[in-house]
């Protein structure tokens, strides 16, 4: 039985890659230095996996920014707006084009927007969306997967190159224009894929992993046909290729036959998300196919329950024999932190229930050793499992009792929206097209350093608080000078919009170095929910009240919603997720009430991850959405009609969930729309969404400063889609990743654009 890891984290155990890339962008280090760090990180991963005893060690799971973008560059899927830049930087080893596609490019007389970015399935990882159009001609460009395979070989390590499979690549992208069908596109891409696979084979690769996570989603018959066509064509062109067709994040369900019919030598399945699929697969597996069992959870940080895993593995052995089985993690370990050994401050009781990437790899090999008779490993594991089940740290009867007592009235505002809107307009007295921001302002090195100093003990809590108050004061004045209508305090006291709340709630613990890549060089440190959640005391009221005391303009209270806290944490797996979400909702509800009592008239409860949590299968979606909406409503419905509730969402498509967005009944929703040129707003228009809406007018992921005319045009477009009195003006998302100069310029342009549009509509 071979052991198989579908992918490993790449940011570096001490975030070395993040630092190297950011220093390269800032001109502080050379390309050679960035490449050196990258090579060191790859080598560390490969040797670590080899030492652990893994047979199928992934390569090409490394990326400077994103693996989907890597594939775009490799196959030449480059939007026409980058062509001139491509010619300017003709040297293939120059990463200027690569980073420009990721981050936009606004220098040397170029002004090019980045590729759109969106969620990778139901994860907090974001990928860059490939743009396909009829004019593109595809060909192989700098195939990094070949280079990395050879690099590993030169280190004496034979790896398994990992590529996104042709259909998942195609389905993760957007076809621009009506003159290119999916099948035409596939016809153009396939020869280049084949050429790429042939190059890998020529370089000596044996197993090649093709990731096809779309196989766990609902597929049309056209797409199923394309799957057949693509894989048959590849197999005919390269009959000796050993393809490990890899699925994850769910079960194959109605795509089981399809997945088994595709000519691949092995199929990887996720038995953490969908253990029930094992029986079907074992019964239907063709005799010449191998099955890779993903039994160790690649999406969470809990220790593997060996007894449960062994039951699945033994069943598979009994049916098809050890030789036809591979054993591994459910998906790439990209979604978990590197190494639990680095966590010296974790409570030892909770720590013994956990496993990070390095420990998960060890779990895979341990399972194999137990199968060959090493029972000691099993005994330790059983002790950890039973300690967790019986720990008194987990259960709080008062929380469970409060949850049981929730009534429908607790999830409903007192009056319907039109009544609330009238009241709020008369109190807030805002102009048409009111301007606001989404909450965070630049988290400068100085602000982050303050927190680092506080942690190290080199400054006192008093100094920290005074310096944060100073940052808030400056930011309130900056916003007043810019002429914004509804202000924010800037979120300077927060390391992260979820971790900050996790640190203050009971039932959570948090790590020192549990970083996980979110997009590009941006990482998050998800807190860990291990038990019943409760708010011991107010979390944000002091900062919000202070900010409000500085100005006569409304300052939005700023909270993270229950579904987003759930989605961006590592969640306990001993009760249904939605039960945890409702506990979180009660904690946020208490905070909302305290903010209102403190005189905050506008309160924003962010739910950017509401869509991320959507089940991948349509049949399970409405149940999830009903519960998610209920959790949001429970969190906010405690307020009076006069208090304006905002919510915010980014990285979301709204077409298929718009009725649930409406059911959230937030007085104002701000959304990310600029990268898609307001395309996302059409869902709101088609549904005649009744409440107020702030479609983002500029992309905050890029340092690029949008011009007044550009934002004005977007607002005019919004005005054709929504009632004028309902439109707010704001960026796509928070500004924490930006620098102050570009932020001020962009916001000044945004306020001018709003003023121009006000004038235009009043004439
Ligand atoms: C809105 N988004 C978020 C998502 N998920 C979250 N959990 N949070 C989000 O905000 N998902 C969707 C999007 C993804 N977007 C982002 C945007 C920005 C970041 C980001 O900026 N990440 C930071 C790390 C943030 C943080 O926790 N900072 C801490 C520690 C900072 C640090 O590195 N300190 C240094 C010392 C100080 C220094 O020299 O700078 C150190 O420890 O070495 C803090 O501020 O205290 C990032 O840099 O990646 C993430 C997702
Ligand atoms: N209030 C948060 C929302 C991010 S999705 C921010 O502004 O950063
Ligand atoms: Zn956002």
Automatic annotation (TrEMBL):
Briefly, what is this protein's role? Answer: Catalyzes the transfer of a methyl group from 5-methyltetrahydrofolate to homocysteine resulting in methionine formation.
Q: Where does L-methionine bind?
A: 438-440, 491, 606
The Cobalamin-independent methionine synthase MetE N-terminal domain sits at 4-316
Task: Quote the record's binding site residues for Zn(2+).
Answer: 648, 650, 672, 733
Task: Please list the residues that make up the active site.
Answer: 701 (proton donor)
Q: Which organism is it from?
A: Chitinophaga arvensicola
Q: Which GO terms describe its biological process?
A: L-methionine biosynthetic process; methylation
Q: What class of enzyme is it?
A: transferase
Q: Does the keyword Amino-acid biosynthesis apply?
A: yes
Q: What is its EC number?
A: 2.1.1.14
Q: Which InterPro entries match?
A: Cbl-indep_Met_Synth_N, Cobalamin-indep_Met_synthase, Met_Synth_C/arc, UROD/MetE-like_sf
Q: Which Gene3D superfamilies match?
A: 3.20.20.210
Q: Under what name is this protein listed?
A: 5-methyltetrahydropteroyltriglutamate--homocysteine methyltransferase
